[in-house]
Amino acid sequence: MSSENNAKITILTISIILQLFFGFAINLIWAMMNDLSFIISLGLVSIPIPGVASPIQSLLSSLIYMDLLLTDKWLANYLEYSVMPSELEKDEAMNIYFDSQGFQSKLVLQNLGSTLVFLLMHIFLLLYTGLMGQLSSVTDIAKKQYLILHPRLFWGGTIRFIIQQFQPLIFASLINISSTSLKDLRTKSLGIKFSFLFSLGLFISTLLIVFVFYRIIKHGRTQSGRFRSLIEGLNQTGYAPYWTVWTLLKWSLMCFVLVLLTDYPAQQLQLLLLLSVFSGALQMSVQPQISKVENMMSFFNEVMASCYLYTLIGLAHASDDFALRELLGLVLISLLLFALLVNLLKVLIQIGTELVRKANERCCQSRDNVTVYRKHVRKYAATTEPSIQRMEENIEALEQIENVFDKQLRRNRILRARLTNETEMPSASFSRSMMAQDILISELA
């Protein structure tokens, strides 16, 4: 159990990291778990599995049903307040096969485990979103929160949550209903009565959801953004849009067979094999997924589930041959691990491809920004170069005008100087002659 708990804690840590930094990766992982849920649930067939196949399948089952919060360690403490100690002591799994796959109780609150916590969290977020919608006209903070939460939670998020948690919800509710005696219910404690009523309402709701999804798709309301999650990744021709409805219906039929026919393993194998073969044939004929890879992987999972069921049939016939049972047990675990590794490899390739695509988009975006910047620079340079040239031409013209003006000014100064010299020379000679005449007159006198 310690290794199982460590694995759960590790998976929980990885899922939180992926959800924070790579939201698309956690969606791919949940989709992979949904694809593997049918073959993982075959461990509930009432046939003992020898060797290490049973504990490994139990670990995978606990991860598929999202029991990652280790609720079996602390949730029982809260049930003690509403359930009598004698009732808790009598509470046990339906059989050893359900016990080994994580359904260790008949009470719906115990079997839901982590799903109950996530369900309450989702309901709280829906109520909080509705409250923010009512307060959006009063405060801008409530309006911003409503605009962020409403498109993510109210329809798309709720539909994804229902699809991901459909199997734990219907398994836990049907186990509680089938193991409760209506005659003895009146004498039970309040917790037992509440558990039965809650499981009854949950079971009816899950079945109604399948019908509601069918009506939504039939009336073409999936074209709007609210219900787009129902046909996400599916073709829009023929029966392909109804593939999500068929998947939920297949899980419901599997749950009925495994829970209601626990004492009839032969009938379980027959009905489950018929269901698996029919689903595989339907997968090949409809080709519901848009991606060819997804179609191939879905058909591969159906083939692996059929091989698993055929191996269980061989295991049921080899009840006295211990060596053959050990060999068939190894075949079972090999089929299970091979299916898990192939699906995990597909998810890793998809994550790597998405990361490379986003990196290329960022590189292209940075290159586009550089190109745009260069275009702006060139445009600015193209618009500024003529003005600069005109300014330089104007400066040159001004310099030429200034040179001409300087030359003209110097020329005027020279001419003025010459004119001045010419006008001063006759006056000087005239005065000298007069002075000479004065001298002669004085001398004559």
Summarize the structure.
This is TRP C-terminal domain-containing protein. This protein has 445 residues and is mostly helical. The protein is 78% helix and 0% strand.
What does this structure look like?
The model is unreliable at 425-445 (pLDDT under 50). Helix content is 78%, strand content 0%. The protein has 445 residues and is mainly alpha-helical. The chain has one domain (2-371). It has 16 helices and no strands. It has helices at residues 2-21, 23-41, 53-64, 75-79, 85-90, 96-100, 108-112, 114-135, 140-153, 156-164, 166-178, 190-218, 243-260, 265-286, 292-317, 322-444. The chain crosses the membrane at residues 12-31, 38-65, 112-132, 153-175, 195-217, 238-261, 267-286, 298-316, 328-349. This is TRP C-terminal domain-containing protein. Keywords: Membrane, Transmembrane, Transmembrane helix.
Question: What is the element layout, followed by pairings?
Answer:
Elements: H1 2-21, H2 23-41, H3 53-64, H4 75-79, H5 85-90, H6 96-100, H7 108-112, H8 114-135, H9 140-153, H10 156-164, H11 166-178, H12 190-218, H13 243-260, H14 265-286, H15 292-317, H16 322-444
Helix pairs in contact: 1-2, 2-3, 2-15, 2-16, 3-16, 8-9, 11-12, 11-13, 12-13, 13-14, 14-15, 15-16
Protein name: TRP C-terminal domain-containing protein
Keywords: Membrane, Transmembrane, Transmembrane helix
Organism: Halteria grandinella
